[in-house]
């Protein structure tokens, strides 16, 4: 589009031409009035003169006129060009301020608009960035549908949970996406009822808590819906563990208590008058109450270790001493099963709680003895490297199936319940071992082969971070 300046100039030139042409025609009539006997030749001469005069006036007026027009239209043209640039999104464009042109107010106003737009666009960009960071770092999956019912926002956590990508989802309706049916139903319900929907769904191995809500604008207008998902797998798992734990404790306590109660009732019903029965039953009651005692002690022990503020009494201890004490404690049990314990512990010292380490070794040795055949051998070895000491107990026992290994250190977990109970086991021994070693900053590992034997290995770091 041509500038205002050129359009006005053309208009001015045309108008001036018409004006002067008119003037020329009018003036031409005067030739006859001034001189009645004018010859044709003189009249032509006059005409030439008039035309020449009009042409000169035309050119001079045009020249001056165009200059004046330019002076007034130049700033307007600048402002127009600036406004066009701003309209295209270049908020940095500014109109020059011409102090003499008298049009600076318009330029100032346009520049102010440009500045405001620039600030608004910076603010918008910042807001957008902030929203993006928030949406991405919120940790929970987020999916948003716009007014027209298609996806217009989702975050990385959502992509990860459902294994989809942004490009696949943006612009699609919930029915086109192909999300799990349970999840689709929640979205559908929010769309249909325009009410908040909160439900738990299962997706592959995870449990998700899904919260869907309509997004209502300030004036009550419907803007779409938002769906947020939290991964609650860990909470559900902990809840299961808690339930299991309560069930297990109750079960473990019930067995000896039922037995004690039964025998006491039998005694009271008359059996106590028979000295042989009396002695037998009392012995059973003693054994069962001993079991209860061990169980409650172990439970207290575990909860003590787990409690915050659990303190280890650390000092430099000799592994040989630890192993010697543990062997002494379990020697009666080993002798009864005619088992040999080979001690290959090297002269190594480590910063640890001696009593706790002995407790760990006694637990491992007791297991090695209980779950091995008579006459087999147990080997205790100790090594060290630059970072840690490694203590292992190897038996030639029955071994543990690979699928059992991951759960071995759980409380009350026993591979063979009947056999373990027979040996007086509560299933808490390895849980205690694990907690005690972890309290030392170390870890426990187990390797086993059915029928060949099992090796439990303890790693204790030489330098532990002081808590
Ligand atoms: N050396 C081993 N060889 C084979 N199985 C073992 C061995 N050590 C542990 N197990 C298995 O792991 C289970 C858990 O052991 P854990 O020491 O925690 O409990 P427990 O021996 O049954 O009872 P306690 O609390 O009295 O130790 C045992 O029931 C047993 O089935
Ligand atoms: Mg045990």
TrEMBL record:
It is a multi-pass membrane protein. The chain crosses the membrane at residues 12-34, 46-66. It catalyses: ATP + protein L-histidine = ADP + protein N-phospho-L-histidine. It is found in: Cell membrane. Residues 127-199 form the PAS domain. Keywords: ATP-binding, Cell membrane, Kinase, Membrane, Nucleotide-binding, Phosphoprotein, Transferase, Transmembrane, Transmembrane helix, Two-component regulatory system. It is an enzyme of class 2 (transferase). Residues 248-464 form the Histidine kinase domain. GO terms for molecular function: ATP binding. SMART domains: HATPase_c, HisKA, PAS. PANTHER family: PHOSPHATE REGULON SENSOR PROTEIN PHOR. This is histidine kinase. It comes from Sporosarcina saromensis.
